[in-house]
Each structure stands twice: as structure tokens, then as C-alpha cells.
Amino acid sequence: MVELLEGPLLRVPFESLKRAAKDRKALIDEAAECVAALRHPLNAPPTASVPATAPSSRSASVAAPSPTPAPDAAGDTEMVDAPSELPAPNAEEQVPDAVAGSSSREASIERLRLLLSQLQGAKRKLKDVSRAEADDCQRCKARLEYLAASPKPTGGEPDAQLSWTRQRLDLLLVDHLLRSGYHESAARLVADSKLAQLTDGHIFEGARRVVGALMDAHDCGPALAWCAENRARLSKAKSPLEFKLRVQQFLELVRSGDRVGAIAHARAHLAPWAGTYMAELQRAVATLVFTPATRVPAYASLFAEGAWRSLADLFLRDLYRLNSLTPESLLMVYLQAGLSALKTPLSGEAGGSREDPLRLPAFQRLAEGLPYAKHMHSKLVCAVTKEIMTDANPPMVLPNGMVYSQRGVEQLMAQQEAQSKAACGGAGVAPPAGAAPGGWGVCPVTGLVFKREELRRAYVA
Amino acid sequence: MSANQTALDEVQKCIKRQKTCASKTDAALDSLISMVKAAQEELERSAPGADAEGTIARLHKSIEEAGLLKDINSSTKEFHTAISKFGKALEKAVDLDTDLCRCLRPCPAASSDPSLLARLLAEHAYRCGAFGLGDTLVGEAGLMDADQLRAPHAAVHEVLQQIRARNLAPALQWAAEHRPQLSPDGGPSDFEFRLHSLQFVHTLKTQGRGAALAYAKAHFAPHAARHLHHIQRLMGCLIFVDRTVSTAAGGTASTSASTSSAATNPYADLLCPSGWDAAAREFAKQACSLFGQASESPLTTVVAAGGVALPALLKMADKMEAQKQDLRSVDELPVEIQLGPSFVFRSIFACPVSRDMARPDNPPTLLPCGHVLCQQSCALLARGRGRGFKCPYCPMEARLDALRPLTFPGLD
After folding, report:
1. Pick from A5, A109, A126: which is nearest to B43 by CB?
2. A-contacting residues of B 21-80, CB under 8 Å?
3. Nearest C-alpha of chain B: how many angstroms from A55?
4. Taking CA atoms, which of A16, B56, B323, B397 is between 20 and 30 Å from A191?
5. Burial class of residue A48 (count of CB atoms within 10 Å of its CB; 0-12, 13-18, 19+)
6. Do residues A58 and A103 lie in contact, with contact meaning Cβ atoms separated by under 8 Å?
7. Would the CB atoms of A7 and B96 count as touching at under 8 Å?
8. Zn-finger regions (RING-Gid-type) at which positions (chain B) (predicted)?
9. φ, ψ for residue A388 (rounded to 5)?
10. Scanning every residue of chain B, which has its alpha carbon at the shortest distance from the alpha carbon of A379?
């Protein structure tokens, strides 16, 4: 059976594993291309366009980026282009002379040195990838084992759901604490309950610094660094985060009165976004005229203090999306589901059990705006035994309309019998006329004395 | 085999393939690097004008011949195959794509006041005895009323820890101090007696029959009136205690041995150690109810209800979306969710005719035949028929002036 609610628990490490494996493939392909480039003799594409044969230009080509594609550049295109450019310089190489020979040796050594550093770089990066892959595999395994060890109860015992939740709740709490920025508390709970493999604290390690810098230091630096690291995926998701960060930097320059700096910043960092965010860009740049003291609401709002909080929220949204975390904390999802399922128009009014969470003001506030549960069937709880009334333990009506369960009224009558035995006719309630011992009782709410014969069974569909 | 087990097997394979792939790749890269290094050294040693291109061509050829890149690629491919197989197995075990947030509504209370949830979580931590966590959270969230949250639980927790450490003295003292609240007549409570029975069994096991008998003489007398039968059974334990001890010592926890000992020892239920957990739970429950609090952490209760309700809610959301409706805008859920008896906290009467919940202005009423309908439903049924009407569930006639309004008394 497919487990419906546990998707997020496994999605996070599994997607991360897939990403790491993809990175591995890309790194290996790059390295393979570097090696494959050896196949082609030294040709130096940069010189190919320059028709000069002078040694000076030849040495310049060595200093310039090598013909082998750099690991971060788009290797494929260069490799496609390379062969077509080959013939011309090759023809020149045919002429062996002493100067060309020695520079070809130098160039080849340089070429190998570059290859070497590329391979060593690949090796180093692969080591990181490998660690990430292994960690994610282990997380997947630990989480599957956790699910196998504590399967979700399906009906069965009435308290099974509660005891399952008792241990499950900690995972939801860690996630919520991390999202709320309570990192110490999250770490503490993880350590106390040994949840390291089951929770995603590692994702929030860097995020903590980014959010801290935004909120406390009003510094976009770490956030921009994070954007740079994840540029490809962010632009694929059409994230406005980087643009907004740049706008904020621009506004800070305007705020500080550095208009020249602001204009330079706008040229360098805002202009590239003109195609996507023209309107916003124009609005931001207009602050060069409308200073922070402006009362024009459209521009004054740009300088509002809440901007930093929204940037942090935007960053977190992207962080969750990139790491396959749910957009909102699962604790909130569970809380809302539970609150609507428990909420009735009578919640919070007198007559409920003290076990009802909706008696507490905090939960009532959380439940504001949530729908009420639907009740098509009656659920009657006996005030004496606290049991739910059923056909086996049906509701019994006292002469004044009070309803208790069958077992409840029996208990009330047995109580009277025991008390009158102990009191021997002294204190206590006097039995009604004509009532047999054990055949009468007292309603604990109204104090009404009732006899067994007066009870009537109610049929509740 | 369960889907979960299949996925576990696949992840094991993934782990293995990952290890192989990583080590093979590393080794291949090492040899690549040393080959390039060797070629580079060769060139550096060579005289100017030597055939540099030739050296590089030879290097390329020997790399090709060693098949290093092929090795890397094939082990990488195997690893990728393992991942995609694992992915398929995983999809059969858990729903990876479902969006659990699709019926979430914005929560104005939580977003306008972040400390609201933080306070709930801190109180939950204190309730569960995680005082370290509670204190850390109170500090991080800057909650001002930490003591108010903490104090009621600290005393309870002290006693609980003693119970878990097999010391019932503080619990017994607490039970004696709170007799008026714990038992209806102010005498020794049932809870106190259960603690004494547990202490008796514990004494019997750890200090032998003499000590246990002395304990019984000292403490059981006040409870004899209400629990005579139970005390007799406890005395039976005096004889049978060895039987569990011997089987426990002899047969090392094999299932057949333990079932046979349970079959032969009629007092196994009294002697089993789960009594301690039960005592701890009962103490927590009694203590919380004296404070007027729920016996279970309300956070746990709500989340547990959420766990039951969520699949149903998600289904509802999908069905409504198919009909171009939105679950997030309704005032009442369209379908009843059966949470189970642990989540019924008040009597709810739903009229079988109108399907409305009874409210103070529309109480349930008892018909002469014993069936119960809402007052408004009765009025509707009686309309146009004078003051009498037929019960919708049986042939009996009822009159509006002969109806009896019912009250389901509150629970506290």
C-alpha cells in the first residue's frame, strides 16, 4: 500500500541523492572531455582567428586560456567547434623550426599541467559529491527503517493513534523549529531523541547564516553567494530572489545618499534583469528622485523595514523548493487538519471535556478561520463513566431529561446503595418512597433523586 | 514482501553501488593523474625540439588502452541504474509527489504572533519532561512567561522520574496528600492502592516474601474495604512469584517458555514489569487532571487527530477541485471524518432528520416512543398535522406538547 503522508520524509533525501548523482555525471563527463581533448594536437583556437605566424603571437596563445575546455565553461560547444578550426593552424604546424619546436614543448607541458589541475579538481569535487550521495543514501535507509519500525496504526486500539503520534511528533517539531529559526532548540531535540538521520538539519546549516545576515546585519552578501551557487536551478525556477536582493542593495545605497554608487550598482546588477522585471526595476530606480523621506506610498513602501523579513521569506521559499521541502511546515499542516476535524460551533463553551485542546485559548486562536467538522452521526459521552454510549451501553433518560449511559446510571445507583449501607440511615440522601435498595440514585448534576422504574431508554440513530 | 521492504532492499543496493562507483572512480582518476604526471615529467626532461605532440598522442593512446574512462562510466551507469530502481520501489512505498499543503489555509494568528506557536511548543516540551528543550526554546523565542509555563510541570516531572527509577515513595506521598481530590469519599484512593500493590510486588521480587508480607500488613489494611479481592490475589503472588522467576531464569525469553509460564502462573499479570509504565502514566494523568489540564499534551492530541483527518481532507480537496470548488473556502467540512473515540470531547447530537448538530436553541427532544429528534425537526414534522405527528422511525404518534427536551450533562 502506498503511504500517503510520508512523501516529504523520503522525498528530501531521495531528490538530493538524484541531484548529487547528476553532479557526479557532469563532473565525470567534464573530466572525460578534458582527456579526450588530448586527441587533437595543440592548435590553440585563440590563434586560429589571428593569421599571424610570429612566435610572439604563439606565446600569447599559451598564456591565454588553453584549447581544452575549462571545467566550468560550456565544454560541449567548444568541442564541437574545435575540429572545424583545426585544419588551418595544423597546416602551419607542419613547418618544423627550432623556435616553434621549443614553444610547442612549452605549450604541451602547460597543456598537461592544466589537464592535471582539471583532473585533480574533478577528483576533489567528486569526493564531496560522493560524501553527499552516501549521506543521502543513509538518510533514505534510516527513514525507510523508521517507517517500517513504526507503521501508522490503522484503526484498532483507540489509543494507538496517540501513542504513534507521541513519537512521530518530534520529527514534525524539529522541522518546525528549524523553519522558525530556533536552531539551538532543534539541535537539542535532535540530540535528545537521536533524530539526526530522520531530520533535515543539514539543509538549514547555511540558511541560518543567510537569514541572520539579512535580518540582523541587513547584509545581502551571504544570500547572493547562495544565489550564485544555485544560479542554474534558481533561474530555471524563475526565482526573483537575486533580483530582489540586488534591488535591496540599490535601495540601501540610495538610503545612504550614495547616488553615484547606486547608479553604478544599477548598471552592473539591475540592468541584466531589465527583460524580466522592467516595471519593478523602474520603480526602484525612481527612488533616485523620490528619496527615503518620500511620502509617495509606492516608493515609501520600498524603504519599509519589513523588506528584510520578506527577503528572508523569499530566500526560505527558494531554499525549501530547491531541497524538495514542503513550502509550509508539516506541523502546521497536521495542526490545521486536526483542528478542523475537532472544531465544532460549541468548542470552547461549557460542557466539554478537559481533554479537548480547543478549550485552550491558544488552540482556539489557531483554529480561527478554519472550517467546522461535520457531524452526521451523534457521539454521546456519558458524564459519569466518560465512555461513549453505544447500543450495548445505551443512553438512559432521567425524569428531568438528563441523559447518562446505562452503565453510568447503574454506577450512580450502586454508589447510593454503598453510601446508605455505610451511613446506616444517618446522613446522606433519603431514599424515595417504595424504592428497593440499589434501585435509586441521585443525578450528580441536578441532584434529582430518581428510581430505576422512572428511567427510559432513548434511541439515538 | 511489503513495498517498504522492497524499497529498503533497493536502497541497500544503492549504497553498495555508490561505494563501488566512488572507489572505482577515485582509483581510475588516480591512475589518470599519475599517467598525466609521468607524461609531463617526460616532456620536462626531454630536449627542446623533441616531439611534444608525439608524447601527448602516446599519453592519449595509453589512457584509451587502459580503459580508465570506460571503467568510470560503467560504474557510474550502474549506480544510476540502482538509483532509478530504488526510485521506482520508493514510489510504490510512499507517495512522493503528493502536496500535503494543498488544503492549508493562511493562519493569521500564527503569522501575526510567532510566539503563539513557540509557547505551545515550549509548554509541550515541559509537559513531556523535556525541560532542557523547553528552556532552550523559551530563550530562543524570547518568551517572557517561562516560569508560568514551566512550574506546574516541574513538580510532576520530579515524581515521574522517581517512578521510572523504581521509587514510588514520592508518588505515594503525593497520593496521600491529595486524597480529598482523588477519591470521592476522601479516603485512600484507588490510585493510591494501585501504587501500594506495585510497591508490594516490587518488594516481593527484590526483597523476598518476608519483606513483602510486612509491607502488606503495614499498608493494605485501609484499602481492605474496597479492594479485598485484589488484595487476596496479591497474597497469591506470594506463592507464585518463584514460578516466573524460575522460568525467566531458565528459558531465555523463548516465546514458548514465556507463554507456558503465563499459562501456569495465574498471577503473571500482577508480576509483569509493565506496571511501572502504567503507574507513571496514571500518575501523570491524575496530576494533570488535578491541575485542570488534559492528561495528554494538547499538541499531541491535535496532531494525532490531524494524522487521521489529513488523508480524508486531501481526498476532499481533490474531489472539490474536480468540481471547481475549493476546500479552503468552506465553513464546514463537506464530509464527516471519523476520528475515533479518543477524540470525542463532548456529547454531540446530530439530528437524524435534519442532520444538524443540536444547539442550546435547538435541543434534542425525546419522543414518547424513545426516538430522539431535534426540536426544529419535530416542529417541521408536526406542521400541517395539528399538534401531532408520526415518528419517522416507528409507527407511533407523538404530540408536540408531549416532547421532553434532553440534556447531555457536561463532562467536567
Report:
1. A109
2. 21-22, 25-26, 29-30, 32-33, 36-37, 39-40, 43-44, 46, 48-50, 52-53, 55-57, 59-60, 63, 69, 72-73, 76, 79-80
3. 15
4. A16
5. buried
6. yes
7. yes
8. 351-394
9. -85, 135
10. B348
CA distance A203 to A189: 16
Distances (CA, A) of A346 to A169, A351, B338, B349: 28, 9, 18, 12
pLDDT of residue B261: 47
Per-residue pLDDT tens over the stretch A352-394:
788 889 988 899 999 998 999 999 889 999 998 888 999 999 9
ipTM: 0.80
- Nearest partner of A452 among A433, A461, A439, A443, judged by Cα: A439
Q: Mind telling me how many Å the CA of B202 is from chain A's nearest CA? A: 27
Q: Is the dihedral angle over the CA atoms B193, B194, B200, B203 positive or is it negative? A: negative
Q: What residue in B sits closest to A327 (Cα-Cα)?
A: B101
User: Which helix H or strand E contains A142, and what residues bound it?
Assistant: helix A98-149
Name the residue facing B302 among A5, A363, A375 (closest C-beta). A363
Over residues B31-69, the pLDDT tens digits come to 989 988 888 888 888 777 677 778 888 888 888 888 888
Question: Which residue from A112, A185, A358 is facing B137, i.e. has the nearest CB?
Answer: A185
**What's the CA gap between B405 and B7, in Å, rounded?**
58
Q: Average the pLDDT over A39-47 and give the result.
A: 57
Hunting for cell 548523482 — which residue is that? A21
